């Protein structure tokens, strides 16, 4: 494989196929992105290419430019449609449909006929379209393989194949399908692989399906996406959803995408946002294709502002006005973070990426950012005062920028001023505007050291006692009250059974329990300040705990000389009964004698 970096051709416009140049000019493509410029290089005209470019860099237009000479040759239009000349494979149906939409206008003047073959659509309709003939086919791996297996798709005339988002297709387990599809195409073809990252799996796939591929890298591997502002928003663990709502309210974005790990989380958060007054839709793998298409179209039309989605459902989608991405769940790896974030800041537009991170996951967030070679501004979630200040600015701007009344409108305005007066009119306008905005959530302030990264850990001073061996739960509460329970490492205390016992004894929930410190003979734990007094009263009631186990405020417990032994072991089983005195002295206990048999 030959490796090259992108070069700027002397005249990029001249290198674009004439049949595409006018369509690109009409759309205002007077300045191409780096990956698009690279595809105008004459040296790449007949070569197989392995192209790495960041998400949102205009790859669809890039490979449209790259394969035009191969598909059209010197002609400016296609002839009658028969067996397809080109094939584009995408990981998801949304991306495949989006690619078709883009190439429709790029090749509009060539008389091209493009067919789609994607899962979730009527396979009979697709088969009829293939029978009528197509110059270019765009599809997903599974559906393309179905059509080839059933004899509906003939790849015998294929001149160029493009694998879009190749890394995503490998992540989704499509490698066998890809090799099957490419095995059905002629060996004398061009194969172009486009991928955000070129890791080992992509390099191996390139060796299998390409011939002497040229490596084209259009961005430095360590370069941060300059058009995206990354923000790490620290929140309390039980205020994550409140922080998401306030982050959306603080932003002046026209369109936002919120990522969750699971379909259930998507459904729950979407319902929560709709109830709070947001125009929101969801996007997940269990939705019908029509539902997913309608959701995306409502985002493109501006009828909906927020889309809550899973990673798989949002792969490759392009929302032109998207300027905010919110990670409701922390990405598990740098590839997921880059993929999600790349939905905004596309093709030169600015974007904001917000990671909602509970305090106890701060370290994990920093590790993912470091692996992705990204830097983020650490901040607290916006509060009510910040959001209301933004509301006031918007309302004032709307009033000041309004045009003066004319004609009949001026007469009615004069009547309103005369009958209601300016103050009442201003108050009515203010209330009407505020009613259109969702009410922000109340968030407890984080301690300053949490935002500044202090207090997490420090080196042990000489002569200082070592920290307890087990500290299973997170940071110390700001207003927490310490209690102790008479179980420790000697009694094999473990958080798995301690936490339910602590909660049940005082009628609190897990979120009300802070740090847990397991010592040799006892365990210290925190209860949130607003629950501590009621907790102390409940644990004094008879039957709150098993006999022999005590929970008391830390000051009371520490004053006692010794602890009572628990009746039960941590595993819930009673201790073995002590053996008899004979056993203690090493003697064998006597057995009950049998009656002697009568002599026969």
What does this structure look like?
This protein has 600 residues and is α/β, with parallel strands linked by helices. It folds into three domains: 2-217, Rossmann fold; 228-385, Rossmann fold, CATH 3.40.50; 471-559, 2-Layer Sandwich (Alpha-Beta Plaits), CATH 3.30.70.330. It contains 22 helices and 19 strands. The strands form three sheets. The chain has an eight-stranded parallel sheet, sandwiched between helices. A seven-stranded parallel sheet has the order 11-12-10-13-14-9-15, sandwiched between helices. Mean pLDDT is 80; it is low at 5-11, 454-475, 556-574 and 578-600.
Could you outline the blueprint of secondary structure elements for this entry?
Elements: E1 2-5, H1 12-15, H2 18-26, H3 34-38, E2 49-52, H4 59-72, E3 86-89, H5 93-106, E4 114-117, H6 123-132, E5 136-139, H7 141-149, E6 160-163, H8 166-171, H9 175-183, E7 190-195, H10 200-209, E8 214-217, E9 228-235, H11 240-250, E10 256-259, H12 263-275, E11 280-283, H13 289-301, E12 306-309, E13 324-327, H14 334-341, E14 351-358, H15 362-371, E15 377-380, H16 384-401, H17 408-435, H18 448-452, E16 481-485, H19 495-506, E17 513-518, E18 523-527, H20 529-539, E19 551-553, H21 554-559, H22 581-584
Parallel strand pairs: 1-8, 2-7, 2-8, 3-5, 3-6, 4-5, 6-7, 9-14, 9-15, 10-12, 10-13, 11-12, 13-14
Antiparallel strand pairs: 16-18, 16-19, 17-18
Helix pairs in contact: 7-9
């Amino acid at each position: 494989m030959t490796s090259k970096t992108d070069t700027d051709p002397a005249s990029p416009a001249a290198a674009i196929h004439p049949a595409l140049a006018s369509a690109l000019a009409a759309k205002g493509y007077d300045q191409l992105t780096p990956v698009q410029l690279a595809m105008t290089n004459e040296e790449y005209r007949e070569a197989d290419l392995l192209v790495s470019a960041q998400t949102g860099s205009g790859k669809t237009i890039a490979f449209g430019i790259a394969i035009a000479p191969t598909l059209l040759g010197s002609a400016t239009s296609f002839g009658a449609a028969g067996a397809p000349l080109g094939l584009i494979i995408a990981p998801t149906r949304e991306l495949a449909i989006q690619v078709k939409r883009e190439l429709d206008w790029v090749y509009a003047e060539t008389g091209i006929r493009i067919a789609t073959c994607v899962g979730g659509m009527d396979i009979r309709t697709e088969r009829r379209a293939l029978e009528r003939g197509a110059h270019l086919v765009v599809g997903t791996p599974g559906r393309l393989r179905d059509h080839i297996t059933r004899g509906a798709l003939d790849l015998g005339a294929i001149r160029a194949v493009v694998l879009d988002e190749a890394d995503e297709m490998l992540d989704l387990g499509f490698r066998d399908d890809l090799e099957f599809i490419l095995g059905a195409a002629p060996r004398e073809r061009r194969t172009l692989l486009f991928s955000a990252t070129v890791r080992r799996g992509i390099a191996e796939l390139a060796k299998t399906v390409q011939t002497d591929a040229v490596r084209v890298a259009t961005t430095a591997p360590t370069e941060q996406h300059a058009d995206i502002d990354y923000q790490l928003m620290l929140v309390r663990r039980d205020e994550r959803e409140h922080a998401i709502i306030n982050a959306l309210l603080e932003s002046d974005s026209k369109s936002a995408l919120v990522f969750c790990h699971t379909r259930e989380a998507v459904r729950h958060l979407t319902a929560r946002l709709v109830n709070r007054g947001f125009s929101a839709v969801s996007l997940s793998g269990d939705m019908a294709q029509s539902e997913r298409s309608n959701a995306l179209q409502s985002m493109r039309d501006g009828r909906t502002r927020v889309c809550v989605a899973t990673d798989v459902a949002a792969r490759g989608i392009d929302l032109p006005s998207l300027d905010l991405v919110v990670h409701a769940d922390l990405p598990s790896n740098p590839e997921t973070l880059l993929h999600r974030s790349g939905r905004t800041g596309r093709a030169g537009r600015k974007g904001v990426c917000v990671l909602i991170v509970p305090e106890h996951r701060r370290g994990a967030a920093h590790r993912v950012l470091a692996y992705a070679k990204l830097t983020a501004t650490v901040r607290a979630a916006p509060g009510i005062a910040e959001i209301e200040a933004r509301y006031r600015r918007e309302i004032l701007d709307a009033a000041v920028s309004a045009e003066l009344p004319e004609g009949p409108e001026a007469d009615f305005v004069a009547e309103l001023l005369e009958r209601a007066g300016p103050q009442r009119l201003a108050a009515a306008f203010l209330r009407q505007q505020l009613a259109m905005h969702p009410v922000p959530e109340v968030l407890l302030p984080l301690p300053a050291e949490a935002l500044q990264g202090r207090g997490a850990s420090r080196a042990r001073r000489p002569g200082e006692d070592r920290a307890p061996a087990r500290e299973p739960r997170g940071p110390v509460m700001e207003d927490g009250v310490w209690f102790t329970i008479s179980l420790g490492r000697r009694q094999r205390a473990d958080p798995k059974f301690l936490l339910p016992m602590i909660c049940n004894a005082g009628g609190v929930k897990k979120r009300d329990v802070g740090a847990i410190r397991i010592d040799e003979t006892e365990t210290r734990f925190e209860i949130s300040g607003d629950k501590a007094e009621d907790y102390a009263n409940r644990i004094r009631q008879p039957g709150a705990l098993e006999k022999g186990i005590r929970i008391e405020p830390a000051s009371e417990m520490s004053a006692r000389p010794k602890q009572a032994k628990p009746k039960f072991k941590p595993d819930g089983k009673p201790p073995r009964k002590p053996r008899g005195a004979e056993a203690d002295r090493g003697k064998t206990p006597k057995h009950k004698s049998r009656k002697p048999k009568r002599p026969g």
